[in-house]
Structure formats: C-alpha cells, structure tokens
Amino acid sequence: MKKTKLLSTLILSLGLMTACGQSQTDETTGGKESDKKVLTMGTSADFAPFESRNPAGEIEGFDIDLANYIAEELGYKLEVEDMKFDGLIGALQTDRVDMVLAGMSATEKRDKNVDFSTPYNHSGEMFITLKDSDITTLEAIKGKTVGVQLGTIQEEGAKKIKETIDFEIKPIDNAATLIQELLTKRIDVAYIDKSVAKGYITEQNLAGFDDPTTSSPGMAVAFPEGSDMIEKVNKVLKEMEENGKLEELKEKWLSEE
Ligand code: ARG
User: Fold this and answer.
1) Do 141 and 204 sit in the same domain of this protein?
2) Start and end of every Solute-binding protein family 3/N-terminal domain (predicted)?
3) Given the CA of residue 175, which atom of ligand 1 is nearest to it?
4) Whose CA is nearest to atom 12 of ligand 1?
C-alpha cells in the first residue's frame, strides 16, 4: 500500500518536473504567455496602498505592481492568492505559495522561519484616532483599547509598550476591519504602518501621531527557507533601484508620504 503510494507520488513528481522543464524551454524560446511558469504570490489584500481590492474586486497596489515586474523580468506569470496576514508565513512554510509580498516587515523573528529579499520599502508606525480624540500622545493610550492587526509587528510592538503603559490590546485579523472598529468606536486607537495610516487619515478624516517607540525593519519579499528565488529577485530589485523603476512605483502608490 505504502509502496504504491510512494510510486505514484514519484510518478506525479516526475510528471511535474517534466511539465516544469517543458514550460521553461517554451519561455526561453519566447513561448506564449499561457506557457509561462507560474509564480504564486501570497498576500493579504487589506492594506492599501500596498495591496487592496479595487471596486471591480481586483487586487492592486504597490506590492502587486512590484511582484508583476519581478515575475515579468524572470519569465513567470504571476498569480496572486489572497489570505489572512497571519496565515502567510504558514503558507510559505507549507509551499502553498512561492513568495509573499504583503507589506511584510523583515523581522528577525520571521527570518527564522522564512527567507527575505533585500528590503524594498521602509515605513514607520502610527497610532490613529478619530479626529476629535484627546489621545494625541503615546502616554494618553493608558486605559484605552488599541486595535492591531493579528500577527503583525504592531501586535508585537503593542505588547512591548504594554509593559510600561497599561492599555488593552485588541487583535483583529483584517486591517480594513481594524479601521471599521475605530470608526464605530469599538476601539479608541488603531496601531498600523505609517504609509497605510496616512491613507486612512485622509480618506476617513481621522487624526494620528507617529509612534515614538519603534524603528521597524524594511518591507521585503518573503520566500520559503532555502528558496533559490532570492538571489534572482534581489538582482531584479537592485536593477529596479538603479533604473528608477522602484522610485516610479513609490511615486505612483506611496507619494502622499
Ligand atoms: N508591516 C507590518 C508587518 O509586517 C504589517 C503588514 C500588514 N500587511 C497586510 N497586508 N495586512 O507586520
């Protein structure tokens, strides 16, 4: 029984290998778009301007443009898979996706479980509140409820701050819901990446202040540990820095900063 299973797995993988080899040949000989190898990107499309759904329901943003450029350069067809942010590392570890771009900060802790490219963007943190709020400093969050997105560096950061200031942390698994919670006064403050916060402040007429406690690591592309894609992607990122393409994308999506 076991042997049969092993054998069929072997046949299956051989089949896959042949299939991959096939499309690679097509690609190098200028194969059609449909023949291209697929690169699956995991993301959490709740994080404009990095990734969010437009009114037509399509996922767009800085990370999507960046991933498309990288895929194009390396001869892949990009496929985007939307999932919860706190499931992304697991998706990489179980090879459900080939890479993750999700405004993900390359922390040391995550680096133990996945591999990161060189950083492509830096963003600080902000606390955002309703416009008329009297919470305008970090000290003022004492006794209040602060919402964070589950599995983010802000969740970690909030726990750290809580060691010295007493407040309640409310982890929420979707960044857009986090803002809804703020608008409906179920939380007093939302703690979120600065570039994302700025968008909401303008769009929803909110207020906010910079987090004085952190200097978070840059956002980077994440891969399963030991992935041979990193070197190639780093090369593309370097090229994009040199040819101005990265700056162009920043101007397109992050220019409010
Ligand atoms: N930069 C933060 C982190 O890495 C938050 C990222 C959240 N991204 C998202 N697509 N919701 O933890």
Assistant:
1) yes
2) 38-257
3) 11
4) 152
For residue 65, the surrounding DSSP H or E stretch is: helix 62-74
CA of 43, closest atom in ligand 1: 10
Provide CB contacts within 8 A for 30, sequence distance 6+.
none
* Alpha helical stretches, state H, the chain: 2-28, 62-74, 88-93, 108-111, 153-161, 175-183, 194-204, 229-242, 245-254
Answer whether the bond into residue 49 is a cis peptide, omega within 30°.
yes
Give how far Cα 5 sits from Cα of 1, 96, 153, Å: 6, 21, 42
Q: Is the CB of residue 115 below 6 angstroms from any atom belonging to ligand 1?
A: no
pTM higher than the cut 0.90: no
pLDDT at 67 exceeding the cut of 80: yes
Clarify whether residues 110 and 131 are in a common domain: no
Same domain? For 107 and 166 the reply is no
CATH number at residue 186: 3.40.190.10
> What distance in Å separates the CA atoms of residue 212 and residue 119, rounded to the nearest whole number?
22
Whether 88 and 51 share a structural domain: yes
- Binding site membership of 105 for ligand 1 (Cβ less than 6 Å): yes
Ligand 1 atom nearest to 45, measured from its CA = 10
